[in-house]
Amino acid sequence: MFLIFCSDPMNKNAVDFDYEKEYSIAKSLGLSVKLISLEELLEGNTDKSLSKINAVESHELALYRGWMMKPKNYENLYNGLQKKNIILINNPDAYMNGHWFPNSYDKIKDFTPYSNWIHIQNLNNDFDKIYRNLSAFGNKPIIIKDYVKSRKHEWNESFFIPDASDRNHATIVIKNFIDRQGEDINEGIVFREFVNLERISMHSKSQIPLSKEYRLFYFQKQFLFQFDYWEDIHYDDEKPDLTIFNRLAQNIGSNFFTMDIGKTDSGDWIIIEIGDGQVSGLPIDSDILGFYKSIKERMG
Q: Disulfide check for 197: which of 211, 223, 236, 292 has CB 3.0–4.6 Å away?
């Protein structure tokens, strides 16, 4: 199995600075590491992007660990590697099943806050359509994101809406979100009921609430590793019972994905979202060695 990382934008022979620790640990464990140029890939130059990877004689499984990319770019990466007999662990459909929130919602809807969404092609600043979506929440608080990302560090300006029925305030927050995402908006906008989680601390810079949340990794639908979601805060010794989450993982159409979970202030554990495991970040000061040892063991 290959592990594929992004190269440094200024030096195609070195790994991207933000992935140096992962790359070094994986290499120290004897895992085969390869580099691609993300910049060339995003420019549509797939062959140049993969120029440092040689073709192999028989099919080899590969796992990408790098920056998020839109599904078309991922498809180009997948197809380019396939021509070299290297098969990414998630095909393009599986990537979208983890990467786009609506693609996994039906699988987790009984264990995650109620949500609805509007595809960007159906938006066109049609706030009547947006208001219809908001009406499903009554006067409950909600948050807004696109199919992949939120702007939670701009909590009051572009993320949190205290009352979904307050159209004037909701319009301001939604417009802020759409304008600030700009061309980087991922596929559409998602509205989610806001649920209070058990608060641990406040973010030192943005002052957003930091709650008891964990990131679970699943490999071939089996639990792989657990990380504290937030860095630089103290978690207590309580650990979530993963039984229900491990069962739900069997229904996710992906071979390598994350499940972010959190504890509500009423004591229930819920799913926050699913993510593609190849582009989900690791806390920098966490047990990255243990994570890659687990991957190596799972690979056999």
A: 211
Q: Quote the domain boundaries for residue 135.
A: 114-193
- SS3 breakdown of the chain: % helix, strand, coil, rounded to 5? 35, 30, 35
Return the structure tokens found at 137.
Answer: 């929440």
Three-state SS at 65: strand
pTM of the entire structure? 0.94
Confirm whether 62 is domain-assigned. Answer: yes
- Residues 186, 208: one domain? no
In 3D space, the residue among 12, 61, 19, 60 whose CA is nearest the CA of residue 35 turns out to be 12
Looking at the fold, whether 187 and 202 belong to one and the same domain comes out as: no
Cα 61 from Cα 73, distance rounded (Å): 19
Specify whether 249 is located in the same domain as 223: yes
Q: What is the largest CA-CA distance in the chain?
A: 61
Question: CA-to-CA distance for 291 and 300, rounded, in angstroms?
Answer: 15
Q: What is the pLDDT of residues 147-198, one digit of tens each?
A: 999 999 999 999 999 999 999 999 999 999 999 998 889 999 999 999 999 9
Distance CA 268, CA 197 (A): 9
The structure tokens listed for 126 are 């049609």
SS3 state of residue 221: coil
Helices 71-82 and 92-99 pack at an angle, to 10 degrees, of: 150
For the chain, what is the total number of helices (H) and then of strands (E)? 10, 15
pLDDT digits (tens, 9 = 90+) for 69-96: 999 999 999 999 999 999 999 999 999 9
What's the structural domain count of the chain?
A: 3
- 203/187 same-domain check: no
CA distance 281 to 176: 26
Same domain, 68 and 7: yes
Same-domain pairing of 49 and 119 = no
Query: Does residue 108 form part of some domain?
Result: no
Give domain status of residue 109, yes or no: no
* Distance (Å, whole) CA 287 – CA 56: 32
